[in-house]
Amino acid sequence: MRDLSHPIRSGMQVYPGDPAVDLEPALELDRDGAAVTTLHLGSHSGTHVDAPAHTVAGGRTMDAVALDELVGDALVLHVPGLADHATIGVDDLGELPGRVPSIVVVDTGWAVHFGTERALRHPALGVEAARLLVERGMHVLGVDTLSPDPTDAAGTTDFPVHEVVLGGDGLIVENLAGLDALPARVRLGIFPLRLAGDGAPVRAVAFDLPPVE
User: Name one GO biological process term (predicted).
Assistant: First the structure.
């Protein structure tokens, strides 16, 4: 079993414009007999899932997402060696089967830059590539970047891949980690908080793998 999630920590990197992450002690063990932490964070902090409501008016919220949508066999597409701001086209995906699993994960290797300025210059999935994956059966898109769309440090309202995936009532998982160690086919579990909102942090797990030592 392998954890594919970034730890939630105070001051961790967030998408430009999102709320900062701040964890503060509310109760302390020595003083109060129990430790309790106050959490200040956005619904899209760390490794998280986007519900359709994130970009689709009237779209499903996280509490309406069934767990079986986020657990199952996955196709992992390794596309290493990409330049900053590269677009991942159909040809970059390699030879795809006629029908892909419901969960497709794109490994760019960019997880190593999470928490740095270069994370903002991540590769992005091309719209035609996203459409092809959806046409072949993808329901959940996972990426190891801040977004499957380009990230603009100044803020943007243009999310074409989100429109393709979330607009089709699918789901997007962002900021995955450790994808480079996964085989092309693996069983994944993505477990979000059941928030009645537009997204939620997740614990993402790859099953049937040796633990990281």
Answer: L-tryptophan catabolic process to kynurenine
**Running along the chain, 213 residues long, what does each successive block of 10 average in pLDDT?**
96 96 97 98 98 97 97 96 97 96 98 97 97 98 98 79 98 97 96 96 88 54
Q: What share of the chain is helix, strand, coil (3-state, %, to 5)?
A: 20, 25, 50
Residue 18 burial by Cβ neighbours in a 10 Å radius (0-12, 13-18, 19+): middle
How many alpha carbons lie under 13 Å from residue 80 in its C-beta half-sphere? 5
Q: What angle do CA 72, 75, 76 make, to 5 degrees?
A: 120
**Are residues 140 and 133 in contact, defined by beta-carbon separation less than 8 angstroms?**
no
pTM more than 0.85: yes
Tell me, what's the pLDDT at 211?
56
Structure-token match 């899932």, residue found: 49
